[in-house]
């Protein structure tokens, strides 16, 4: 684990300690870095050629404290599977069209066994090469798995090289994950925005049952190989702000709450991106495990700090559009205004309301000026004091107390007496395959 000042600023915040200064959590995505390097967006996402050189120049220009490049969508494995979930448009951007992998009459089958239903029914609908004969399906899946691993390794090597050169915050290996809330999972790929909206009126009880049923699957999906208090599982919240309060209370909150608690109990904090304005749900968010991390898109900073700042870690709220429309001084003044509200008492990481997706989203000089201001003008006079009470739960990993969904029947004959040696080896490979499958949806 790195011991430089930037590293410690982040870990102090995560530990409930006021750091020497406010850490900077801003991250630039792959597409932004490709455009900065003047590279062809579509071609470069396939090869990653030139990405390190372009990002290296960008990192030399900006005082970033978190490694760029994010978590891209890999076009090779999606193409090999014939994915309808993400497609590359003519502009070179990976786009998520509205898709529907499940019909309303399928709820009962899904609730009975979400994992089996996803593999047997939803995959064939959303991945066209899954619909083919068994040999073609096996070959396309094997090719997709290899393509995913190759791309992931190449991407990880670039990020590792950047982290070694620059003083980025570096979480423990294997401690980053990603997942969606159960209701969002239904809306994203299974029923689509239109379908889930109709289902709220047509079959509301089935939605609640489906959210509960898919919890163990999403827990496995969101729990990384090495759960750690300095890692995090990213969870973007999509649909909540489209719901009425009573719908949120019935359909969204219960399973979402349980998922965040389950990951926390397993030693894995959640980093939750609250899309749109979550003001009416702030009292709910207070109930989540202490030290949960939030990035807010919209809302009043005073209200958010007042309601959540003593228990949870806050970020976001700086409008990234301001970096394009305002003068440099106005951008710096906005950062000062936000820090004056959010930084006192700690539990704060500076970030924008969203990452700039393309170069045209921001004036890069303004972006740099804001980051420089935060790095030079957000020191704490009371560094080292506690920002929230020390957690009292055991550091020992606890397992989610939900229905078991593991698939441990290896299905292979092994020599008598060697089961204890062979089974873990075979299970490891099966786990790797399942981990890839969970990333598909």
Describe this structure in words.
The protein has 441 residues and is an alpha/beta fold. It has a domain at 1-24 and 83-125 and 168-406: TIM Barrel. The protein has helices at 5-15, 30-36, 41-47, 51-61, 75-81, 107-112, 114-126, 134-165, 182-190, 192-202, 204-213, 215-222, 245-265, 282-286, 301-308, 322-325, 328-342, 364-377, 419-440, and strands at 87-88, 94-95, 176-178, 232-237, 270-277, 293-298, 313-316. Strand 5 (270-277), helix 14 (282-286) and strand 6 (293-298) form a beta-alpha-beta unit. Helix 4 (51-61) runs parallel beside helix 8. It starts with a helix and ends with a helix. The model is unreliable at 394-410 (pLDDT under 50). This is Uroporphyrinogen decarboxylase (URO-D) domain-containing protein. GO terms for molecular function: uroporphyrinogen decarboxylase activity. It comes from Eubacterium callanderi.
Task: Summarize this structure as a short list of keywords or feature phrases.
two-stranded antiparallel ribbon; 7% strand; TIM Barrel
């Amino acid at each position: 684990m790195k011991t430089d000042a930037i590293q410690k600023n982040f870990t102090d915040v995560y530990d409930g300690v006021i750091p020497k200064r406010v850490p900077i959590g801003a991250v630039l995505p792959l597409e932004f870095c490709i455009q900065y390097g003047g590279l062809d967006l579509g071609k470069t996402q396939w090869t990653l050629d030139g990405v390190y050189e372009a990002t290296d120049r960008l990192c030399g220009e900006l005082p970033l404290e978190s490694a760029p490049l994010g978590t891209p969508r890999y076009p090779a494995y999606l193409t090999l599977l014939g994915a309808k979930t993400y497609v590359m448009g003519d502009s070179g951007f990976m786009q998520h069209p509205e898709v529907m992998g499940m019909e309303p009459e399928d709820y009962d089958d899904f609730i009975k066994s979400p994992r089996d239903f996803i593999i047997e029914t939803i995959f064939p609908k959303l991945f066209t090469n899954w619909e083919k004969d068994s040999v073609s399906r096996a070959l396309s899946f094997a090719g997709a798995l290899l393509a995913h691993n190759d791309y992931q390794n190449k991407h990880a090597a670039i990020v590792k090289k950047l982290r070694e050169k620059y003083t980025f915050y570096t979480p423990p290996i294997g401690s980053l994950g990603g997942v969606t809330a159960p209701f969002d999972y239904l809306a994203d790929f299974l029923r689509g925005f239109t379908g889930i909206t109709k289902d709220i009126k047509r079959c509301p009880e089935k939605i609640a049952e489906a959210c509960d049923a898919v919890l163990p699957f999403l827990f496995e999906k969101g729990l990384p190989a090495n759960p750690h208090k300095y890692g995090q599982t990213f969870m973007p919240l999509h649909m909540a702000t489209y719901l009425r309060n009573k719908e949120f209370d019935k359909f969204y909150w219960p399973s979402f709450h349980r998922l965040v608690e389950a990951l926390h109990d397993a030693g894995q904090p959640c980093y939750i991106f609250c899309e749109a304005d979550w003001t009416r749900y702030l009292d709910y968010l207070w109930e989540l495990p202490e030290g949960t991390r939030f990035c807010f898109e919209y809302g009043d900073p005073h209200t958010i700090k007042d309601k959540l700042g003593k228990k949870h870690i806050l970020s976001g709220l700086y409008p990234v559009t301001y970096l394009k429309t305002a003068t440099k001084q106005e951008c710096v003044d906005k950062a000062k205004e936000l820090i004056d509200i959010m930084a006192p008492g700690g539990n704060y990481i500076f970030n924008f309301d969203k990452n700039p997706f393309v170069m045209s989203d921001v004036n890069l000089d303004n972006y740099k000026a804001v980051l420089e201001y935060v790095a030079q003008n957000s020191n704490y006079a009371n560094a080292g004091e506690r920002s929230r009470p020390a957690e009292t739960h055991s550091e020992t990993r606890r397992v989610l107390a939900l229905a078991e969904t593991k698939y441990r029947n290896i299905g292979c004959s092994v020599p008598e007496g060697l089961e204890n040696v062979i089974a873990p080896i075979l299970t490891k490979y099966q786990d790797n395959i399942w981990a890839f499958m969970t990333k598909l949806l």
